[in-house]
Automatic annotation (TrEMBL):
It comes from Liquorilactobacillus nagelii. It holds the Pfam family GFO_IDH_MocA_C3. The keyword Signal does not apply. This is Uncharacterized protein. It comes from the Bacteria. One of its GO terms (molecular function) is oxidoreductase activity. InterPro entries: Gfo/Idh/MocA-like_OxRdtase_N, Gfo/Idh/MocA_domain, GFO_IDH_MocA-like_dom, NAD(P)-bd_dom_sf. Residues 131-243 form the GFO/IDH/MocA-like oxidoreductase domain.
Amino acid sequence: MAVEIKYGVIGSAKEVADLATALAESQSAKLVGIVGNSSTAAALVAQDPQIKVYPNEQALLQADLDVVYLAASQQSRFEIAKKALKNGKHLLLEGPLTRHFVGASELYRLAKQQKRLIVENQTPLFSPIVAKVKELLTDKQIGKIKFIDVKCFLPNIPNNFSDLSAGGGALFKGGPAVLGMIQTLTGNKIDNWNGFESNQVGQADMQCNLSLTAGKVLANVMITADFSIETNLTLYGTDGTIRLPEFNQQTDTAVLEKASGSQRFVIENQQGRLFYAVEHVNNCLQHQMAPSPLVSPELALNGIKVIDSMYQRWYGDPLN
């Protein structure tokens, strides 16, 4: 019997519940540790007494477990991540990794030194439908990609969304997954970018618009928490288009449009938001793959570089 991969979680009650749900469907991993008392933690321990509740992050990081799912606030995430790596833990982190490029680079250097895995949870990249879209692109179903249009609405924003020091802002919250998708689907790093933001005085951006290039592909990105828009990522090729609706919520659908007609691809019985990220981490560990082939250090760091540079341009240097 294969050895189960042991997970601990540092995050809110919702994130604890999300991880527990994902691991309940996994054949190769289990939840063994939670930081902090909550009704969610109590219910999980009642179901499985082997799960331990730890009083603080340091206690969990010193425990016998393999992976820490880190969804703590941005203000504390960097220091906790460093301690986790120094304690020999692999990391699955909610994105972005840190509030700044320098810190993210330091985490990847430390992970390499410690021979540990870091995976930034860019949710769409793990989705089966995105794997299907990559197949369609490899098969030249829309010819050569020329342009990508992204519109992304951020619902249910937290109370500190407008606080730059807490990692608030539309680009900061929505940018990592969007930039990761563009780089993944084009196979190119983002090499040129510019953009604008809209905000109240002294607050983080409630919406932003970026124009960028990834190789020879142009892209336009709009991310907003200010008003509701239909979330879509659309790839325009020489022979057609592919549209991913609600891509930032791990959509199960892609629509291919060509002169000959349209075709809809749907993943049946798709698992929850965190399941595929967890399975990717498990697969990497089982096959000794580090770094992640889906969210490589180069991909993640280039996205953070874009975000960091835009905030420096808009606000001075608020993220460092």
